[in-house]
Each structure stands twice: as structure tokens, then as C-alpha cells.
């Protein structure tokens, strides 16, 4: 069963790296959102550094949502998803493997691109570190919610549009605590609490959503 | 789809069979309408004439008699949808599908009404239509979830297959709503420690509480009536669709 | 090519089975048994419900009424191979990689990847990206998936689709070998398969 799990994980990574492009495009998109903001609100360094946590998270939010559609669609359309249901690995396990692969392919490039944003949005080094930790802890939850959106819309022909709309409101807690884990003021420093809550929500999401997504996928065929 | 020849069935089958459901529940409509109208007449009379003005807010406090019931319904309807979703997933009950689908737009409407009346009330009280206060914000997020569910229903061609998928999403939302509420409250207190306005339920005098409760019942009755009508419409729509398909197939054969 | 050991005897029985797709009931009152070493051929016009019946047997669709059961097999672990009209082949992986993926997902134990590719006549192109294959070659690759993991039940939806005459003979030989090893199969097919096996049943579905 473990070999099936790793086989799916590795195959997804291999396919993404071989077809190239997509994950790089997402990282590029992430950076571009961050770069566009100063044009919208002006190059005031102080203002930018105050808004930076929010900007970083919104950019991450949008990039993850943008990549959602790839998660199950190809496997559904070429029949692979149906065959994976005939293997010994429970479908929730299949979803978890794909979730992890998707996180590695979308969130890791974002994390790698964060220093670039930090410099341009004039974040100080501690804030930058908090941003990396916050993204590291929060993005698994974001991707996990995304799997539900992708699973629910997998049989809809133009589901790519509707999945982000479904998932966005559900992901608001992640956004709140994700930004909260970076921001320290004004008022008492709540970033530690926020990080813990972020971790809790992220963990719950990763633990629960594979089952929900698996149920949605089996229902889609029936 | 036959209404006849099923006299010896249990109540469960009678509820489960869409045609039968329409047949027996149609008789409930008139009493429901009468109850709704009576409750509204009583509630509105109490709200307008038999309850005092607020010593601070004046007459605008009467918006509360619409705002609080719609806000209650925004959550109650989601509860109805979640229970129906369990019915769909666990028992594959066809009427649960229909109930879920009919409730979604109603829930969205009541939630929008709650936000609208909240904004109307906010203008004289807070001096602004929109305040990012915890309660209002979580209601707004709830409205977005309702919109998502309605959009999801509309995205599917095959409504029977849609039901189970929408049910999964509805339940994921139901698990998420308390988390959203908690996080939004945390966020609101972080940014504005002083609470703007709080409705202290138990300390309200009876002269306000009584009309409020009557109005809550009136709106709930209104929802139940509209929900039942929506379910009937949905059953009929499905029957029309399946008849059309059968006709098309006969044409092809 | 029959290197695999035999399967335990099993039997597929259906009583009063009705299949549905969405709200449409497509095939009703189906009664059949398929023993080890037997194959049931599903015949019928397009839209008669052949694919739906296969999807029901593999557990993706719930029967509208009636029941079916595989007896003599441990239903806790996977025992069904399905060859649908979608080939589940990734164009960006080589043939060998495609097969290796299914071998590790389904647990191998049958032919090795090179041997399976050889058996379906794709041996020389094992290192090629599957995207370069023709429709018929892709079908052969999908068939090779059934050979790398032995499973007693084969559900085949138009197994000879896109294949040439030689390919049809190959499919028939593969099925014969599977039946000889004690497996069973249900296949939807328009064309007569040149099967040697004696236990061939036929089920005609009417729309």
C-alpha cells in the first residue's frame, strides 16, 4: 500500500517536472502579484512593509487557487482516477498522495520566491522569517481545502472557474491566522497564538479533507 | 412516478417518493400560509405599536425585528441543508436532495436580507453602512458560501449526481463555519478591541423580547412555507426533465 | 506467455440485476453466472447499457435493483481489472514508466514490464514516450497493464477497439490464457472474438 502511495506521489512529481512550466508559472504569478501591488498603492516603503504580510498571503492564496484545476482533472479525463479506485490503496490515500505532490509543486516554489517579495515589499528580516514559517504551516491547509474544491468540480467541464469561488470563503480562517502569524503590531503581539491556530486548522484540514474529497470523487461517478 | 397503487407503504416510503411527497404535503401549504400570515400580522403589530423606542437608538431599533430573524434564518437554513446533506449521503433519500437544493437560494436570500438590514441599522447606529465587526463579517462569509453552493448546483447537468457532491461540500462548509466564526471574531477583536455594539439578549425587557420571538417564528414559518413550495417546484422540474428525456429517447429509437 | 499460477475458483452470479446511469435504468432483470474459466460477452446496440453494466460490476455504480456477487474471492483486496474506453495512459511517461506505475500501484506479481510489453507487441518501443503511440498501440499498452498484476476478474469494454486483425487475435489469446489460468471475464464487444475457450456465454442487452 505504501508503494502505491509513493508511486502516485512520485508519478505526479515526475509528470509535473517533465511537462515543465506549470509550477514555475505559478511561482512567477506569485511574485508578479507582489510586484503589481506597489504600482497600485504607491512606493511608500513604510506603507508597503505594513501591508506586506497581507500581500504575501493574498499572492499565495491566488497562486494556490489558480493551480487547483490540475489536481484531478487529467487523471479523471484519461480514466486513471477510476482505475485508482480499483487498487488496494483507499481513495482517501490516493487523494493524500496527490495532495502532498501538489503541495510540493505549488507551495515550495512560492516559499523559494518569498525572499524576492520580502525585499521588494521592504519586510525586515524577522518579518520575513515569520512569513516563511507562516506560509510553510498554512499552505498545506490551503492545498487541502483546494483538493475538496478540485474533487467536487472534477466532473464539471468548466470546473476550473468554480472551484476557487467555492474554496475562497472556506479558506478565510487560514488567511486570517496566516497574516496574523506574520504581523506583530499594533497592540499586543498575537503572532505566536496565530501561528498555533494556523497550524491547528491546517492539520485538521489535511486530516479531514482527503476523506471528503474521496467521497466527492466516488459520488461524481455514481 | 405513479401516485396510485402504493397505499400499503410505510411513512418512510411515502416521504421518499417524490410524487407522493408532493401529493400529501400539498395539503400543508394552506395552513402554513395562514400561520405565516397570522404570525406576521401579530409580530408586526407588536413590533410597531406595542414595543417601546430605544432610549438611544429611537425608532431605528425596530429594524431589529427584521434583522434578528433573518440572521437566525441564515444559520437555521444552513442547518436544514446540512441535515438534508446527511440524508442524501447516508440514506440516499431523494427528498433530501430536493430539500437541499430548494433551501440554498432561500438561505442566500435571508442571509443577504440580514446583511442589508444590518447595514440599514448600522448607518444610524455606527454612522456607517458597513463595519467590519465580527458578526457582520461572518455573516458575509456565510453568504459567500451560500453563493458557492448555488453556483455548484447550477454547474451540474445531471442533478441526481450533483446532489451527493453538493452534499459533501455542504458538510465541509458546515464543519468550517464555526472555525470561520471563531477566526473572524479573533480578527475583529485584534483590529478593534472596543466592541461596537452588542445585543445582550437575556437582559432585554419583555416588551422587546416578545415581538422579537414572534417575528422569529413568523420568519421561520415563512421559510418553511417557501421551502416546501421550492421542493414541489423542484420535484416537478425533475419530472418534466425526465419526461423530456424519455420523449427524446423514444424519438431516437 | 502463461507463466502465472492459477486463481482460486470463483464465480460471478447476478440475480434480477438492473443497472442505472443517473436516473435512467438501462438494463433490467439480468440473470447470469460466470464461473472460473468462463467469459460473458455483452452484446447490444450503442446505448443499451453495456458500459453501465461493467461499471456496476466494478463497483463504481450502484445497481438500481437486484444483486450480484463474486464468490470465492477475497473482496477486501482488489481483484478486478478494468479496461475501459479510456486507456489511462500518460503521454509524458515512457511505456515502461506507465507500466511500472501500475505495477507499483496494483502490486505487481505478474509479468515483468518488459515481458508484458513483449506480450502485446510493444517490446521494441519500451523507452518511447507514450504520447507518440498510435491509438492501437496505446490500446495495447493499456492491455499490458492487465498482465503485470494478476487479478482473477477482467472487465473489458470493447477490448479490441482501435486494434488491427492481428491485435484482435492477440486480445483473444490473452483472454484465453487468462481463462485457462482460472480467471473469469466479462467483455462488451461488437466483433466476434476468436476465442478458443469453450465456456463462452452471451448476454444480449436491449435498449
Automatic annotation (TrEMBL), chain A:
Instruction: Tell me which Pfam families the record gives.
Output: CcmB
Q: How does it sit in the membrane?
A: Multi-pass membrane protein
InterPro entries named in the record: Cyt_c_biogenesis_CcmB, Cyt_c_CcmB_bac
Report TM segments. 21-41, 47-68, 89-112, 132-154, 161-182, 194-217
Indicate where this protein resides in the cell: Cell inner membrane
Q: Give yes or no: UniProt keyword Cell membrane.
A: yes
In its UniProt entry, the species of origin is given as Devosia nitrariae
Q: What family is reported?
A: Belongs to the CcmB/CycW/HelB family.
Gene name of this polypeptide: cycW
Organism placement in taxonomy: Bacteria, Pseudomonadati, Pseudomonadota, Alphaproteobacteria, Hyphomicrobiales
Q: What's the protein here called?
A: Heme exporter protein B
Automatic annotation (TrEMBL), chain B:
Signal peptide interval? none
Q: How does it sit in the membrane?
A: Multi-pass membrane protein
Intracellular or extracellular location(s):
Cell inner membrane; Membrane
Q: Which UniProt keywords apply?
A: Cell inner membrane, Cell membrane, Cytochrome c-type biogenesis, Membrane, Transmembrane, Transmembrane helix, Transport
Instruction: Give start and end of each Cytochrome c assembly protein domain.
Output: 33-191
Which one Pfam family would you cite for this protein?
Cytochrom_C_asm
Q: Where are the transmembrane segments?
A: 28-50, 70-91, 103-122, 134-153, 165-188, 208-229
Q: Which family does it belong to?
A: Belongs to the CcmC/CycZ/HelC family.
Biological role? Required for the export of heme to the periplasm for the biogenesis of c-type cytochromes.
Please give the PANTHER family that the UniProt record associates with this protein: CYTOCHROME B_B6 PROTEIN-RELATED, HEME EXPORTER PROTEIN C
**What is the protein's name according to its record?**
Heme exporter protein C
| The species this protein was found in | Devosia nitrariae
TrEMBL record, chain C:
Keywords linked to the UniProt accession: ATP-binding, Cytochrome c-type biogenesis, Membrane, Nucleotide-binding, Translocase, Transport
Q: Which SUPFAM superfamilies match?
A: P-loop containing nucleoside triphosphate hydrolases (SSF52540)
Q: What InterPro entries does its record include?
A: AAA+_ATPase (IPR003593), ABC_transporter-like_ATP-bd (IPR003439), ABC_transptr_haem_export_CcmA (IPR005895), P-loop_NTPase (IPR027417)
Q: Which GO terms describe its molecular function?
A: ATP binding
* Recorded coiled-coil stretches: none
Task: Pinpoint the ABC transporter domain residues.
Answer: 12-203
Instruction: Supply the name of the protein.
Output: Cytochrome c biogenesis ATP-binding export protein CcmA
Please give the organism: Devosia nitrariae
Q: Quick one: which gene encodes this?
A: ccmA
Amino acid at each position: 500500500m505504501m508503494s502505491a502511495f509513493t508511486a502516485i506521489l512520485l508519478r505526479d512529481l515526475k509528470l509535473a517536472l517533465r511537462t515543465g512550466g506549470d509550477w514555475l508559472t505559478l511561482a512567477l504569478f506569485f511574485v508578479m502579484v507582489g510586484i503589481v501591488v506597489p504600482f497600485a498603492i504607491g512606493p511608500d516603503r513604510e506603507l508597503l512593509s505594513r501591508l506586506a504580510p497581507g500581500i504575501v498571503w493574498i499572492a499565495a492564496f491566488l497562486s494556490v487557487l489558480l493551480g487547483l484545476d490540475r489536481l484531478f482533472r487529467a487523471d479523471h479525463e484519461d480514466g486513471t482516477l477510476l482505475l485508482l479506485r480499483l487498487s488496494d490503496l483507499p481513495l482517501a490515500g490516493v487523494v493524500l498522495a496527490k495532495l502532498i505532490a501538489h503541495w510540493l509543486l505549488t507551495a515550495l516554489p512560492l516559499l523559494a520566491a518569498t525572499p524576492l517579495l520580502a525585499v521588494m515589499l521592504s519586510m525586515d528580516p524577522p518579518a520575513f522569517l515569520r512569513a516563511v514559517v507562516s506560509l510553510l504551516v498554512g499552505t498545506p491547509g490551503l492545498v487541502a481545502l483546494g483538493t475538496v474544491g478540485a474533487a467536487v468540480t472534477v466532473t464539471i467541464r468548466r470546473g476550473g472557474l468554480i472551484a476557487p469561488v467555492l474554496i475562497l470563503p472556506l479558506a478565510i480562517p487560514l488567511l486570517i491566522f496566516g497574516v496574523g502569524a506574520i504581523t506583530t503590531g499594533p497592540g499586543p503581539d498575537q503572532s505566536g497564538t496565530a501561528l498555533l491556530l494556523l497550524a491547528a486548522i491546517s492539520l485538521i484540514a489535511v486530516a479531514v479533507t482527503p476523506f471528503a474529497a474521496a467521497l466527492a470523487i466516488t459520488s461524481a461517478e455514481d | 412516478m405513479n401516485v396510485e397503487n402504493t397505499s400499503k407503504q410505510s411513512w418512510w416510503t411515502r416521504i421518499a417518493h417524490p410524487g407522493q411527497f408532493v401529493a400529501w404535503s400539498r395539503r400543508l401549504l394552506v395552513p402554513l400560509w395562514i400561520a405565516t400570515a397570522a404570525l406576521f400580522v401579530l409580530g408586526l403589530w407588536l413590533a410597531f405599536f406595542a414595543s417601546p423606542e430605544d432610549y438611544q437608538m429611537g425608532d431605528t431599533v425596530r429594524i431589529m425585528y427584521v434583522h434578528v430573524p433573518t440572521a437566525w434564518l441564515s444559520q437555521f437554513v444552513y442547518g436544514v441543508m446540512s441535515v438534508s446533506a446527511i440524508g442524501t449521503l447516508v440514506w440516499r433519500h431523494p427528498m433530501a436532495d430536493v430539500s437541499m437544493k430548494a433551501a440554498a437560494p432561500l438561505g442566500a436570500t435571508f442571509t443577504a436580507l440580514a446583511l442589508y438590514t444590518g447595514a440599514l441599522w448600522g448607518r444610524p447606529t455606527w454612522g456607517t453602512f458597513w463595519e467590519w465587526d465580527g458578526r457582520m463579517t461572518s455573516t458575509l462569509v456565510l453568504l459567500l458560501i451560500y453563493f458557492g453552493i448555488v453556483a455548484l448546483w447550477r454547474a451540474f447537468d445531471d442533478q441526481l449526481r450533483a446532489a451527493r457532491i453538493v452534499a459533501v461540500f455542504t458538510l465541509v462548509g458546515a464543519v468550517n463555519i464555526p472555525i470561520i466564526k471563531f477566526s473572524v471574531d479573533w480578527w475583529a477583536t485584534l483590529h478593534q478591541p472596543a466592541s461596537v455594539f452588542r445585543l445582550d439578549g437575556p437582559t432585554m425587557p419583555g416588551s422587546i423580547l416578545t415581538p422579537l420571538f414572534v417575528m422569529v417564528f413568523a420568519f421561520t414559518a415563512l421559510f418553511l412555507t417557501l421551502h416546501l413550495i421550492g421542493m414541489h417546484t423542484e420535484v416537478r422540474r425533475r419530472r418534466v426533465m425526465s419526461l423530456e428525456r424519455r420523449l427524446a429517447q423514444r424519438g431516437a429509437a | 506467455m502463461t507463466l502465472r499460477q492459477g486463481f482460486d475458483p470463483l464465480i460471478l452470479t447476478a440475480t434480477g440485476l438492473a443497472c442505472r446511469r443517473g436516473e435512467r435504468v438501462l438494463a433490467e432483470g439480468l440473470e447470469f453466472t460466470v464461473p472460473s474459466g468462463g467469459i460473458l460477452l455483452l452484446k447490444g446496440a450503442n446505448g443499451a447499457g453495456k458500459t453501465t453494466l461493467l461499471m456496476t460490476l466494478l463497483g463504481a455504480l450502484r445497481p438500481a435493483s437486484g444483486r450480484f456477487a463474486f464468490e470465492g474471492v477475497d473482496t477486501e483486496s482488489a481483484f478486478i481489472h478494468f479496461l475501459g474506453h479510456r486507456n489511462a495512459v500518460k503521454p509524458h511517461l515512457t511505456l515502461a514508466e506507465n507500466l511500472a506505475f501500475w505495477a507499483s500501484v496494483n502490486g505487481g506479481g505478474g509479468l515483468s514490464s518488459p515481458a508484458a510489453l513483449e506480450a502485446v507487441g510493444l517490446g521494441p518501443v519500451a523507452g518511447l514516450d507514450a504520447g507518440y503511440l498510435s491509438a492501437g498501440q496505446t490500446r495495447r499498452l493499456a492491455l499490458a497493464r492487465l498482465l503485470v498484476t494478476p487479478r482473477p476478474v477482467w472487465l473489458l469494454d470493447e477490448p479490441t477497439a482501435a486494434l488491427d486483425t492481428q491485435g484482435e487475435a492477440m486480445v483473444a489469446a490473452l483472454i484465453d490464457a487468462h481463462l485457462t489460468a482460472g480467471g473469469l471475464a466479462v467483455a462488451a464487444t461488437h466483433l466476434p472474438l476468436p476465442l478458443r475457450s469453450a465456456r463462452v456465454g452471451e448476454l444480449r442487452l436491449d435498449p
